[in-house]
Structures are given as C-alpha cells and as structure tokens.
Design brief:
Layout (H helix, E strand, L loop, with lengths): L4 H7 E2 L3 E5 L2 E5 L3 H6 L12 E6 L3 E10 L8 E6 L2 E7 L18 E8 L5 E6 L4 E11 L4 E3 L4 E7 L1 H4 L10 H8 L2 E5 L9 H6 L7 E5 L2 H6 L2 H18 L5 E4 L10 E2 L2 E2 H12 L5 E4 L21 H16 L1
Parallel strand pairs: 12-13, 12-14, 14-15, 15-18
Antiparallel strand pairs: 1-4, 2-3, 4-9, 4-11, 5-8, 5-10, 6-7, 6-9, 16-17
Length: 330
C-alpha cells in the first residue's frame, strides 16, 4: 500500500500544514505569520514532525530527500519505532564514528531510502523526522497492509525554545529531550524550537491557538550571549504576557539555561547567573508557571555535549530528559 496525500496528512503530527510540490511532501511546523515574525534559518527544519499510525503491514519503505536548514549542520537521522521500540533509522552517519565535535562535520545530503521490518500483526508505528535538517518525504509504502489508521494522542505538549529544544546535537531525532518527554507522557509534540532563538514574544503571538496540556519554555543561553539585560527582561516579560493569554490554566514549565563550557565567562548580557535571576524574577509568582533550574538537568561534562560545549549529545539528552521528567512528575 502506497500512501496518498490525504493518508499522509492524516498520520502526520507536529505540523501546521503539509504540501505536495514537485514530487515531494513538505512539512511545515510554522505558519506563514510565524515565519514572518522573526528571521531564522531553521523554520523549515522538521524538528518534532512525526507520523503515527496503526497497521497490520509487515514492511515499511521510505524515500526521503534532505537538505541543509543551516550551513554548519548536515548530520541527520530519521528514526522508526514500532510499539515504542526503536527498529532502525535512515541516517547519513555511523554511530560508532560520530564522536567528539561532530556538529560541524560535513555529511552527505540528498536522496535516501530505507526499509524496516515491522513484524506480524497489528503494531503502532512512529516515524520521527530529522530535527537538524530539512527532510521531504518522496514516498511511503507499507507492504501487505490492509489498513493504516492514524493515532491520535490525548495529550499535546508545546515546546518553545532555542537550538537545544530544536534538538541539536542529538544524533537520533527520537532522542531529543522533547521527543523523549512526549513519548514518556504519551503526548503529541508541537516543537517551536529554533536554533539561535531568544525569548520571542512576536513568534508566540503569531502562533495559532492550540489546545495544549503542557507547555515547556526554554530560552536564555542565546539571550545571555547576544542581548543586554534590559532587552532580555523586556522580551521575557512580553513573552510571558502572550503565553499567559494563549495558555491560561495550562501548566507551563520554564527552564533556565543548562550548563555550557563558558558559563562562568561574561557576555553581552553579563553573567549567566544574572540571566537566570531575570527568568526567575519574571516568571515566578505567576499562576500555573513552574521554574526548573536548567543547570541541574545535564551533568557539567563536555563529553555529554555533541559540540563539546553547548548542545547535548544523545547521552546528554538522556540526562536532560530523565531529570526534567522528575521535575514535571513532582
């Protein structure tokens, strides 16, 4: 069974739109209004895009086309899970050799194919699209399938954040903290993470209204690096105003910046602990707002970071996810 446009749309999650153009299915996690609200080269990256469905098919065949979202990252992995168990990937790297600072290495992009044995009987299938590049679907086929039924999760988590929320430097798309948290809480993901982003009230204002059960906000590290404290505070306060209106009575977890190799240095925003203080000052004492200390989420060990300085690796995100889940479950 080769899936058609309507079937593909019905099983795709984490998007505002799906289009078919020049032989490719294109996935959009931001509206045109959101894309116009700020400048960012990561709008078309497929972070948080997933396909979820039940089927009795025995084999999944995929053909994708990949290209850069931003120049310095070309590694990618499209992961496939059946009944919650990882069964394989389409990827352009070798797990055994992707060590050290792999973020800036050049890996091949373009057309890739993959086949995945799903086994007998009915199973729930999840396809997790790359977060680090733009991935277009060219074809999806499920052999011996008599049905493909979309899976609708009862919960939805909305993530706002920077490159860490987008997923850099997880090698596997299913191992970012956002993907792991959604899987653990049996929820759909709406990932608004954008590499290089700061608190973005215009982006939040432009976003379409959605029914969320949980919201995660994780900014601060780029703010500290690029902006003065007065601007950081202003952006955070305006962001808070928008979020409170859009997600009234929804639990919002605000994460302060995680450890980075230069966190004791002084940047345009001063010292990183001063930015953390601003975040606490702005977001505390607000109904449904919960602040989590990001410096406790990932151990202060550069080997847990894919670029050895800022963005967690798969192992780093394992710590991030588990420690965050403990805080949310409290």
């Amino acid at each position: 069974m080769k899936l058609n446009f309507e079937q593909i749309k019905s099983i795709t999650k984490g998007v505002v739109n799906v289009e078919f153009d020049n032989g490719k299915y294109k996935f959009f996690r931001f509206t045109a209004e959101e894309s116009k609200s700020i400048e960012n080269q990561n709008f078309l990256a497929t972070a948080g895009v997933q396909m979820m469905f039940k089927t009795d098919g025995k084999k999944l065949k995929l053909k994708i086309f990949t290209q850069h979202a931003m120049p310095i990252r070309s590694y990618f992995s499209l992961d496939v899970l059946a009944d919650g168990v990882y069964i394989g990937s389409i990827k352009n790297f070798d797990d055994d050799t992707a060590k050290g600072n792999y973020a800036e290495r050049e890996y091949p992009l373009g057309s890739f194919n993959g086949e995945f044995n799903l086994g007998e009987g009915e199973k729930s299938v999840k396809i997790v699209f790359p977060h680090s590049v733009i991935a277009y679907l060219e074809e999806i086929e499920i052999e011996n399938a008599t049905y493909v039924t979309p899976i609708k999760k009862e919960k939805t988590i909305v993530f706002y954040g920077d490159s860490i929320t987008q997923g850099f430097e997880a090698l596997h798309a299913s191992k970012t903290y956002a993907a792991r948290l959604a899987e653990s809480l049996d929820a759909e993901t709406i990932n608004k993470g954008l590499g290089g982003a700061v608190f973005c009230p215009k982006l939040a204002f432009a976003a379409p209204d959605v029914k969320a059960d949980l919201v995660v906000v994780a900014y601060g590290t780029n703010d500290w690096y690029a902006l003065e404290q007065a601007q950081i505070r202003k952006n955070a306060e305006e962001f808070l105003t928008v979020i409170k209106k859009k997600f009234a009575h929804v639990p919002v977890y605000v994460l302060t910046p995680i450890w980075r190799f230069d966190w004791l240095s002084e940047k345009k925003g001063g010292k990183v602990f001063e930015i953390i203080d601003i975040i606490y000052d702005v977001f505390q004492n607000n109904e449904n707002m919960h602040i989590i200390c990001g410096t406790d989420l990932v151990p202060h060990d550069e080997t847990l970071f894919g670029d050895l300085r800022l963005h967690p690796s798969d192992d780093g995100f394992e710590h991030y996810f588990k420690n965050l889940l403990k805080e949310i479950n409290c």
